[in-house]
Design brief:
The complex is a heterodimer of chains A (358) and B (264).
Chain A: H1 2-11, H2 14-43, H3 51-63, H4 73-107, H5 120-133, E1 139-140, E2 143-144, H6 145-165, H7 172-198, H8 202-210, H9 218-237, H10 239-245, H11 249-254, H12 259-281, H13 287-299, H14 303-328, H15 333-352
Antiparallel strand pairs in A: 1-2
Helix pairs in contact in A: 2-4, 2-14, 3-4, 4-9, 4-12, 4-13, 4-14, 5-6, 5-7, 5-8, 6-7, 6-12, 9-12, 13-14, 13-15, 14-15
Chain B: H1 2-6, E1 15-26, E2 29-40, E3 44-48, H2 55-62, E4 70-75, E5 78-79, H3 85-91, E6 92-95, H4 107-112, H5 127-140, H6 155-169, E7 173-177, H7 185-202, E8 205-209, H8 213-219, E9 222-227, E10 230-235, H9 237-240, H10 243-250
Parallel strand pairs in B: 3-8, 3-9, 6-7, 7-8
Antiparallel strand pairs in B: 1-2, 1-4, 4-5, 9-10
Helix pairs in contact in B: 5-6
The chains are: A mainly alpha (358), B alpha/beta (264).
């Protein structure tokens, strides 16, 4: 108690003061990074576009505001029809996967969880493989069978895993994770078989597995955005339940949280965001696993900070990685992200090993 | 029957917790057999008994975490299972088992989780909540730990943090399951004195499962002894923790357990 008096002076303001400052700085950096990747993502490429031109096109198309910068019609096509949808899709997917990853990690109390932990990835991949192998071409406003079946496959496997493994009780989380692993294994076997017999279509399945943003378009973006942003917002609204569940099911229950209901809702929302992301961009790894960890190292584990900052950081990271992938010459974006991001993550892990500093 | 028992209580007020004919079990196993227990407002009660006697199950039923097979538990006159979760959490604070956290988390934020039942949805921690958190940290005497990562603390320190969570919850009833299990003797006494203080100064009703009979006898005016799923003693320490009962219930030589009951 005597030593407490001294440390109280140092802290001056207690909980409220130190909780505030740092997340704001990290959030501001993430927003700046997001704007930077927007400008660079639209500006760089075989034809360079100045930031002023980028903003001129965006403002005039969206709000009809003329900021006095003349833009050639060719530049306008490059900005509006080619690059902007791709940059925004990268941001949307990065945001969705990072929020879903943070949610799964918190819910399952497992730092190794990622958006695909409930078998979503294998489910989506099997759906995509079936679509590729079926001798049917079906396109409804830019959405092919591949998008539809990948979306359905992802949701169906998440639903199945939750139904079989989400029974709660002692060791419930372990059972859920193991069920996800088992269902994922079955689906992976089906996928391997499908790839084995696919022949010339193999490349198409393989490119879905690698993930990529080459197929971005306004229509796909506009359809996926409400699903991903809506899920993310609804998850954020339940952030305090997520916080309470960090203490374990029993303690969370005593804090007034209906654990099984909240877990069901949050798993459904995170699976929805994941399925929508996977359907339009394939299986992009790394961002959903690593971004929430980096954010937690910087701002602590409270959901009202981790979720929004992960959303921003995930968006910035994936659009930056996609820009890199595009400039190098259409390397898969997941490859770029892992090659550059993993060493950075290792560096952060190494630095934080000595203790938790906030 | 239970009315007779609580006649020994310091403050004769209406029952805040009333279990009648309470029978509890898991799968094929019965752990509590037709127990009657009444706890009055402002009481300080220790629940003792050998391992497997059903103490924790009884606490789980009282806090609404375990549904009875037969009988009932009433909280302030209402069946505990009908009380909405948030209201229940504002009425009973439970010190949970010491759990491992999946991520690094500063102590102050863990304690802040105690304010969950009070926070309006979406707003998060309000200034009054932050003040309650600071006060709880101060009261438990863990100000020096507030920025430390919960996972780096010793079991004893973590136990103090979990007690602080329950104190921040500021509920009129405080339930603790072996709150001193991981503590050294100095901190055991600190926690006991804190419970006495919460009980006498704030009027908090305290119900604690304890293994240490000496602590129970010294700090609790009412001790309930549980053996093989039945309540076999309920009263002051000198009534309930006599030499014969210690020999019968705990199967140890009473000379090994020196209790302050002779003086009481």
């Amino acid at each position: 108690m005597a030593a407490g008096a001294l440390s109280r002076d140092v802290e001056a303001g207690g909980l409220a003061a130190w909780v505030r400052a740092r997340p704001l700085v990290v959030g501001a950096v993430a927003i700046a990074a997001l704007l930077l990747t927007l400008v660079l993502g639209v500006g760089l490429g075989s034809v360079r576009v100045a930031p002023a031109e980028t903003f001129a096109v965006i403002l005039s198309r969206l709000f009809g505001i003329d900021i006095g910068v003349t833009v050639t019609p060719a530049t306008e096509v490059i900005v509006w029809d080619l690059r902007l949808p791709r940059v925004l899709t990268a941001m949307l997917i990065g945001c969705g996967l990072a929020v879903a990853g943070a949610t799964f990690q918190g819910l399952l109390r497992n730092p190794l969880a990622d958006p695909y932990v409930l078998g979503t990835a294998s489910g989506a991949a099997v759906g995509a493989a079936i679509a590729v192998l079926l001798p049917i071409q079906l396109v409804v406003i830019e959405f092919g069978l591949l998008h539809g079946l990948a979306f359905v496959g992802a949701l169906a496997s998440a639903w199945l895993v939750f139904r079989l493994g989400g029974t709660g009780g002692a060791g419930g989380l372990t059972r859920l994770l193991l069920t996800g692993y088992a269902i994922g294994s079955v689906l992976a076997a089906v996928l391997t078989m499908a790839m084995y017999v696919s022949g010339v279509e193999l490349r198409q399945i393989f490119s879905f597995l690698l993930g990529g943003l080459g197929g971005s378009s306004w229509v796909r973006l506009v359809v996926a955005a409400p699903l991903i942003i809506g899920s993310a917002v609804l998850i954020m609204a339940r952030g305090r339940s997520l916080d309470g569940m960090l203490l374990g099911d029993a303690a969370a229950g005593h804090l007034g949280i209906d654990v099984s209901r909240e877990r069901g809702i949050l798993l459904a929302l995170a699976s929805m965001a994941t399925a929508a992301a996977v359907a339009i961009s394939g299986l992009i790894g790394f961002v959903g696993l690593v971004v929430p960890h980096v954010v937690r190292l910087l701002v602590g584990p409270a959901a009202h900070r981790v979720l929004p900052i992960s959303a921003l950081a995930g968006a910035a990271l994936l659009s930056a990685a996609d820009l890199g992938a595009r400039l190098v010459g259409d390397v898969p974006v997941g490859v770029v992200m892992a090659l550059l991001g993993a060493p950075f993550f290792l560096f952060l892990l190494h630095r934080s090993r000595s203790g938790y500093e906030l | 029957m239970s009315a007779v028992a609580s006649a020994n209580a310091v403050v004769p007020s209406p029952a805040v917790i009333a279990a009648r004919g309470l029978t509890l079990g898991y799968a094929g196993r019965m752990v509590i057999d037709a127990a009657d227990l009444s706890v009055a407002e402002g009481e300080r009660l220790a629940l003792v008994g050998p391992n497997g006697a059903g103490k924790s199950s009884l606490l789980r039923a009282i806090t609404g975490a375990l549904a009875p097979r037969a009988g009932s538990v009433e909280l302030l006159g209402e069946p505990v299972h009908d009380v909405p979760r948030k209201k229940l959490a504002r009425t009973i604070a439970v010190v949970p088992e010491v759990a491992d956290l999946p991520f690094a988390m500063p102590v102050a934020e863990v304690v802040a989780l105690g304010r969950l039942p009070h926070e309006p949805p979406l707003t998060g921690l309000r200034p009054t909540d932050a003040a309650a958190v600071d006060a709880a940290i101060e009261r438990i005497g863990i100000s020096h730990l507030r920025r430390r990562d919960m996972r780096e603390l010793s079991m004893g320190e973590r136990q103090l943090v979990f007690i602080a969570v329950a104190v921040a919850q500021a509920a009129p009833i405080l339930v603790l399951d072996e709150p001193t299990a991981h503590l050294d003797i100095r901190h055991q006494v600190d926690v006991m004195e804190l419970l006495v203080d919460l009980n006498e100064r704030d009027g908090t009703t305290v119900l604690a499962v304890l293994h240490d009979l000496a602590l129970a006898a010294h700090f609790f005016p009412r001790v309930v002894v549980l053996a093989e799923g039945r309540i076999v003693g309920d009263g002051t320490p000198s009534e309930t923790l006599g030499a014969d009962r210690i020999r019968d219930v705990f199967r140890v030589d009473p000379a090994l357990v020196r209790l302050p009951v002779g003086a009481a």
